[in-house]
Amino acid sequence: MMFSLNLSIATSTAALGLLAAAGGAQSQETIKVGVLVDQTGKTSFYSQPVTEGTLMAVEEVNAAGGVLGRQIELILEDDNGRPDLSATKARKLVDDGVVAIISNSNSGATRQAISVTAESLTPQLASANSAETLTTLDNSCFFQLGPVESLQVKTMLAFTKTKGYGKVALVGDNSGLSTAAVDQFRMGLGEAGVPIVEEQLIPVGSQTAVPQLQKVRAAEPNAIYQVAQIGPQVVQFFQAYQQLGMKQPILGTFNLSSSSYLTTAKGLMDGTVFTDAFDPEKPEAIAFSERFKAKFDKEATSLEAYGHDSVVLIVDAIKRANSTERPAICKAIAETKGLPRVMGAKGTGFDFSRGDRRGFDPEGVVVRAIENNAYTGAVFSGTKN
Questions:
Q1: Is 228 left (phi over 0), alpha (psi -120 to 50) or beta?
Q2: Residues 367/261, Cβ–Cβ less than 8 Å
Q3: Would you call 6 exposed, middle or buried from its count of C-beta atoms within 10 A (0-12, 13-18, 19+)?
Q4: Confidence at 385, pLDDT banded by 50, 70, 90
Q5: Which pLDDT score is estimated for 20?
Q6: What CATH number does domain 7-146+281-351 carry, 3.40.50.2300, 3.90.1300.10, 3.90.960.10, 1.10.10.10?
Q7: Are strands 196-202 and 250-252 parallel, antiparallel or unpaired?
Q8: pLDDT in tens, 63-78
């Protein structure tokens, strides 16, 4: 099996076994699937777990006999989370003969690869990216699997509508991911008639968020939207919140589903609710979590499940197309509706029937909470409740 990055993508000996097992047949007999992953950059902390789920799914498919009688061979490329490198890596994968590319890197890197897959009619799946603009680009073979920011906003607004919060504050960071999400929350709150009394961005690279949270405290909001912060800024936000003795409810976003924060911000996040795409009580999620736990001796999160679902979609499309030709796979993915998946609320699956190349069911986002430094199950789901 061919891999173009170091094996540090896997953090356990069990995961290393996945790398060896995922493509047991000779390369000329396999169906090649490319994966773009941030292994060494600033977003590697969530990109690598997504890829771990991808690797696990491929191992399971191959152990069951593969697809169309052939094994799947993954070719992984580290784009370092850099947009300027991602397109180059995508072109290398296309030249290597992959039938599809799974983008497990960040939204900026994914965006740059789209021009390459558009030229070659190579199916490209953004497994977990939430950026609104990705599917607005001209590429009929690009598909987004996770919930976009506006859908998360609608779900959180539906949840908070019953809480009666009269005025709120927005706190993000100045990364591209967070500022884009803040824009979506500002728009959604405005349309819902919810006053925003303060808005702050924590600078990436800062050592504390106390100055930003002091301004939020002075504005006296009824609740605080903590929007798409990543890495150290998450920890700084919660440290400042506790240090300043603030008591307002915190409404977070999908980024808090990374279990790494249960360690880096241990004991600081209790009582926070956040949007997620993973309901641990969904039957498909239960089965996936049990298999993941047995293999890695750790709990599965939404990140690994995103990676798993990307493989499920590709394999299903190849089967229905009865072909490994790229355009045929594109067409099959675009026609997918009702395919069961791990991610999403109970009763939801892949649905590309709207024609917008966004496969996440509009009612599939859930709201979860953090209690006793652990994630709860879904306490709310959808946009209509």
A1: left
A2: no
A3: exposed
A4: low
A5: 37
A6: 3.40.50.2300
A7: unpaired
A8: 999 999 999 999 999 9
